[in-house]
Amino acid sequence: MSFLPKSLAKRKDELEEEIQAHLQMAIQDRRDRGEPAELARSGAMRELGNVALVKDVTREMWGSVWLERLGQDLKYALRQLRRSPAFTITVIGTLALGLGATAAMFTVVDRVLLRPLPYANARELVGIKETGKKGPLGLGAPFLDLQQWRERSHNLRDLAFYEANANIGHLSFLEGNTGSIQVNATKISGNLFATLGVYPTMGRSFEVQPDSGAVQADDAHTILLSDAVWRTVFGNDPKILGKPVKVSGVSYEVVGVMPRGFTFPFGGASPVVWTPAVLADADKVRTKHGTNYQVIARLGPGVRVDAAEEELKVIQAEVAKAYTDPYDREQVTSVQVQRYGDSLVKGDVRKSLLALFGAAGVLWLIACVNVTSLLLARATARQREIAVRGALGASRWRIVQQLLIEGLVLSGAASLLGVGLATLTLRLFEHGLTTQFHIYTKMTPNLSVVGVLFALTVVSALVSSAWPAIAAAKTAIEPALRQSGSQSGAGRTQFRMRALLVVAEIAMSLTLLVGCGLLLRTIYALKHVPLGFRTDHVIVANMSIPAYKFAGRDMTAELYQPLLERVQHLPGVQSATLMTEVPLGKTFQMIFTFSTEGKSAVDVRRREMQSRFRAVGPDMQKVFGFRMLKGRFFNEGDTPSSQPVVVVNRAFVKEYFGDDQDPGRILGETLLNYNKERRAVVVGVLDDARQVSIAEQSQPEIEVCLPQITPDSSFYEGATGMAMDLAVRTERSSASIVPELRELLRNASPELAASNFTTMDQVVEDSYGSQHLAARLLEIFGGAALLLCVAGIYGLLAYLVTQRTKELGLRIALGAQRGEVMWLVLRQASWMLLTGSVVGLILAYLSSLLLRTFLYGIEPHDPWTMGAVTLLLLSGGLAAAYLPARRAASVDPIHALRAE
């Protein structure tokens, strides 16, 4: 195989002919002067000098010789690596671990934190929220407030608003060519897409009212489709514009299709469509019953976020005075302005990702250090070969270049394997990543990740190969040629360099292992937290309810009760219940806010009180086994015609009364109105149980009886029309009963067939949050680091024993005991382990502070964890040192001295 272009190959042949012609002329000249043929030839050769060096110097002047040398170095590197398959596999596997872990975590970081939003100049976009006594308001701001911001602000170039599904009381279903699917139907202002700097690829956007940014009344029943909806639901129909489509039973005319890859609000699992936000009478007042909008704005040229926030705070101080209710006024006294991209990622998510990415980076460093140590040993073993190359005229830079090419070949092969490991890791942790970071697209290394991996490949080659290459090239030629055997060139300096690398490995490995130990103890603590309910043999179906199909009808009587009766009659079902959300679920949350009147301290506290709100079936206690503190739970006697009743938990009693000394005193209290004629009373108090997260204490909760909810109930739409969970206790396996449950749901309503099935054990597992994901990843990172660390110790000591075989044989021949020889080797391991452990504990002490947000029931500087992990590392290190030490003690002095 030739790496040379034809013109360069021809010049090379011409150079060879010219040198041979010059040599023949010199030989002939000497023979003409009477010298014998042999003397003439040797004299001419001495006069010409090193022919290979002459060729190299000449070709240097051609300028394109680097291509030839690159080809030579590549072929030589491949040949050398093929001769040492064990060494090659070890180096590639070691680097692949570090590169694969780093590539996997960078893929997640890129997807969540770095990937630019699909909007023009996304850094200029900000989200604006009203804030006050209780912090930022997540429900948005009324139109009158954001209109004041629009009119009076000089730092905002444009301001748009939108109303997402969560604020309109029901889920949305789009009827398409393939049936009805759930969509994220977002109501937007007419200028929203212009504010984002994105426009439809087909058709047009909504017509805008210039004074308000809202949509013209003529466009009230138009709709824009996302590219994903257009392709999947309507089959890329090129004539889609102008056609009518139905969203939750309401007809809209398609006026445009947005570009591929565009989505807003950013993220989410459901396809997106956009309908107009048309102003109504409710937008003309500032009340809690009006419509609230999420606000996104674009900063003016050169305007900073803090400058825009300061200006809006001044404006908001005047806006707040327009609120007549003192309580409402306290909640909107200021504003918070944040870059839109930053608002999409919570602070704890950002910290979690960066901590895991840092752990992956540490593993990569450990891998590079390990490979550096291996390459140093290999360079020492090859000193005689390198010395011969130097004696034949190779420059030091030429030798360094060739060794760097070998490192680059190893690193390149490792990066290819690393891509496979990264893809496998992302697939194994796909569920956890989706649950914790809300990543709903397939995560595979993309071009940016490949670019980072390429950079890491080059850096890995330089980091691991540069030091051994330079050290090998600097070795004196004459002493290396005079020495023989595997001991040539081996000295204290090189051993100390490798020992320092192993110490660094130990320190970094201990840092990762301490983090892993802290998280494992956290998971252990979480798994031993009393949940307050049973999770075994419970299957859960998360149902998205097509409420529009039951408009004007009683969903409880016509949908839920018949469905529940059919489920309860399935073979193997012990009990079943419906509820708006199972404990620790993440599907749908309702918050109940008191609005009592009065100025006493008790009235004010209750007025500001918020409670979790759930509608549940009477059999919930049979399914989950909740414990009652006082009173009773719902039963079959609680019907739409009976006295409305509610059940609260102990945390509710404590918040309501200010203490929980006597939970039973709340029995008989009237807490909420079903309607003007029906007021619910408390009939029972549940013991506290975990609701949102295992790591969080119980929050106040009020539960209403699902069969008692009728269409005239004030909370009917929210409690029955958004989402519902079906929880089934059964001894049957999920594989056998889920198909039957899905068929029952399909018969009840076709949309319910797409329900997501899981188990309560999985729900609990998911509720561990980022701690569980981080613990599993650090188990892999820490285990790999420990393996590399032990391998590094073993490799260094095995090399030491090989280099000092003659010395050890001489010691034994002079009377040294076998145990003393073993201790000689183990002592080398001991000081490396102790030094690395001390440095590692210092690093672990500092880095454990970064894990504070992950931990539960344990302090970051837990001495038991640090002590146990250190003991594990020391034990592994000494075990790795035992084999070389035993080999050293078994050296036969006769054979060792005979080899001298």
UniProtKB/TrEMBL annotation:
TM helices/strands, residue ranges: 86-109, 353-377, 403-429, 449-473, 499-520, 780-801, 831-851, 863-883
Main location: membrane
Protein name, per record: Putative permease
Taxon lineage: Bacteria, Pseudomonadati, Acidobacteriota, Terriglobia, Terriglobales
Residue ranges annotated for the MacB-like periplasmic core domain, each copy included: 89-313, 555-690
DNA repair keyword on record: no
Every ABC3 transporter permease C-terminal domain range: 359-475, 780-892
Family: Belongs to the ABC-4 integral membrane protein family.
Keyword set includes Transmembrane: yes
Tree of life domain: Bacteria
Taxonomic source organism: Edaphobacter modestus
Keywords of the record: Cell membrane, Membrane, Transmembrane, Transmembrane helix
Membrane topology, record value: Multi-pass membrane protein
UniProt cross-references to Pfam families, sorted A to Z: FtsX, MacB_PCD
Compartment(s) where it occurs, according to its Swiss-Prot or TrEMBL record: Cell membrane
GO cellular component: plasma membrane
InterPro entries: ABC3_permease_C, ADOP, MacB_PCD, Macrolide_Exporter_MacB, Perm_prefix_1
Gene Ontology molecular-function annotations: transmembrane transporter activity
